[in-house]
Amino acid sequence: MKYQRPKGTNDIIPGEAEKWQQIEKIARQVFQKYRYQEIRTPIFESFEVFSRTSGETSDIVTKEMYDFYDKGNRHITLRPEGTAGVVRAYVENKLYGPEIQRPFKTYYMGPMFRYERPQSGRLRQFHQIGVEAFGVDSPALDVEVIAMAMNLLSDLGIQHVKLALNTLGDQPSRQAYHQALVDYLTPYQAELSEDSQIRLQKNPLRVLDSKDQHDQEIVANAPQIVDYLTPEAQMHFDAVQQLLKDLGIDFEIDSTMVRGLDYYNHTIFEIMSDSKAFGGKWTTVCAGGRYNGLVEQLGGPEVPGIGFGLGVERLLLILEAEKYQAWQNNPLDVYVVGIGNETNAATLKLVQAIRQAGFSADRDYLQRKPKGQFKTASRLAAKYTLTVGESELSSQTAKLKQMSSGVEKTVKLAAIFADFAAVCQQFK
Predict the structure, then answer these.
(1) What is the C-alpha to C-alpha distance for residues 389 and 23, in angstroms, rounded to an integer?
(2) Amino acid 60: pLDDT
(3) Is 177 labelled a binding residue?
(4) What is the Cα–Cα distance from 307 to 289, expressed in whole angstroms?
(5) Is the pLDDT confidence value at 421 over 60?
(6) Which domains, and CATH codes, for the chain?
């Protein structure tokens, strides 16, 4: 039997994993500048954590969640997105306490799971990097979160992007818009897709997010929520736009954007790329928004929140398509060459000492002849070779060669064991 990875998943093998590590490293550096700290939540949660927050009519809940009953008959879900689990942890661990600074800023990285048709950049196990900020309802925080997302993409080397912006308003705005949308869509009810007919009854706003082509034609002339905003919601949205302008961040208003999860309100945004990876078609690589009320849904106090998530697989597709040149390899500092079986213990001690001195080191384990070992050192682009043979063992020395210059020096083994960094200074 031939075993294969499950459909919609990928193996991240050596050579590729280093690219993931670099993306994660850059993300951590950006988040640290903005004073965000890491949180790690379980990969699976109670089903209700996502069904209650994401919305019973969302595609995630109705079609895409991996859920099952465990041996204790508990309804469990593999997390389809990061926010709900972070909110659950925020509430359960009382991270809203008076001693905790507001806004409470956190970020996460890890795998998510959705059962959908696998395609390029969209897998059943995919990976997200996301941030969440709790406790402040200021438009300035909305803009800071957006600016951080733009900063992150820029630091990753993704330059040609556009920011799409919309608002879903406050609760009174949503109620007024809900009725206007129902009035508009009801005459088209029979023409809507089966999913949208159900959503019209339960959550008409979700019809705007339909992928059905005829649904999209119908909603093209639907009322826009910006025409139903309360004065308070309008002020919030106006302030977000002005602050973005103040920071020199260009944006477009997309009044049809609603996002795929029910918990959003007020500011929502998507950052899109027209990379060759997507055939030049504008495709979302990072998205998020404000979700005031979500903390209360999971049993917490009335605490506002905002955040974003981005898919690592899509980032990699863009970087590969743009022939990103800044991938960091795994450099080898020293390759230790042993000549003769009697050098086995000495070379093992040397690579260990060099590693403990803070350098990367490797040696031969296949009992190859010196020529084969030197070829390996060259193929691995080692900065130095350190050669030990019978004569070197007798004199307690080794030959250290700087590969870039070809300069070779005889050094004492005792000096290597004592301070290899000082030994390397001879080549400066």
Answers:
(1) 42
(2) 66
(3) no
(4) 6
(5) yes
(6) 17-170+230-321 (3.30.930.10), 334-427 (3.40.50.800)
